[in-house]
Amino acid sequence: MAATDGRGGKRPKSVWLTERPPLKRKADQPAGLDLDKIVGATVRLLDAEGLAKFSMRRLAAELGVTAMSVYWYVDTKDDLLELAVDAVAGEMRLPDESDAAADWRDQLRVLARAYRDMLLLHPWAARLLGEFLNIGPHSTAFSNATLRVMGRSGLDPERASGALAAVFHFVYGFATIRALHEDRCRAAGISLDDYFAQVVAAIAVRPEHAETMALSQRAAQAQQGHSAVEMLKREFTFALDLQIAGIETMRDRAGS
Predict the structure, then answer these.
(1) CB 89 within 8 A of CB 118
(2) Lowest CB count within 10 Å: 12, 77, 158, 196, which one?
(3) Within this chain, do residues 236 and 113 fall inside the same structural domain, yes or no?
């Protein structure tokens, strides 16, 4: 039965909005099993095998218990996935906000890089971030930190949400595409450098890509001596600086 908001309307489904009775361990429940252990095993399985192969039965086997033992702690697989995505959100380092003189731009960079690193370390999280409300304690702490940092930028509060969307949607897209490339490389047993080299070789002989190749070669010359990962890190840093510069420009334009 769908949850309601008390006014006859349907409430968004979320494990964080569902009240469960306190757990009372049954005699036949495996000793040492708890929700934290289950969520931790879920994250490890998702990291190792991906979202498509994940199942409650596979998780139970990993834990050495029955699937029913897992369902005693969560109602559905989706509930468990929502717990898992909030757990990895807890890995994101938040800036130290105790220093009132700290530069908001540096703090925003800390948050953006933490978000990127989490998405690269846990590629499965990208899809789940688009499916769930992400209102767990770790996700909320991260969101609140971004709002506080943006609040110190001097930007009109009405534009803060749009500014944060510009930054973190960029980070999401950049990290997700890179993670997909890296996953494809792992499946093929090649490095990211080899992958990029194969792409270049494949299009270099095609006349319709001549302009692209000419422009890319100029960029490649500037990146000589750097690996693909180093190149991507440099591009991310520059693109993030562009986002921050844009925020400053819009703030100053509104104040002029």
Answers:
(1) yes
(2) 158
(3) yes
Residue 49: inside a domain: yes
Half-sphere exposure of 16 (CA within 13 A, CB side): 17
Based on the fold, state whether residues 64 and 160 are members of the same structural domain: no
- Looking at the structure, do residues 35 and 119 belong to the same domain, yes or no? no
pLDDT, tens digit, for every residue of 10-29? 556 899 998 877 665 555 66
The string of pLDDT tens digits covering residues 124-138 is 999 999 999 999 999
Residue 10 is classified by DSSP as B
Q: Say whether both 36 and 82 belong to one domain.
A: yes
> In the predicted model, is pLDDT for residue 115 greater than 70?
yes
Residues 182 and 215 placed together within one structural domain of the fold: yes
Identify whether residues 222 and 150 lie together within a single domain.
yes
Answer whether 247's CB lies under 8 Å from 160's CB: no
Domain that holds residue 20: 15-89
Residue 87 has pLDDT above 70, yes or no: yes
Amino acid 196: pLDDT: 83
pLDDT at 5: 42
Give the chain's domain count: 2
> Contact at 8 Å (CB) between 47 and 91?
no
Between CA 230 and CA 227 the distance in angstroms is: 5
User: Distance between CA atoms of 20 and 75, rounded to whole angstroms?
Assistant: 9
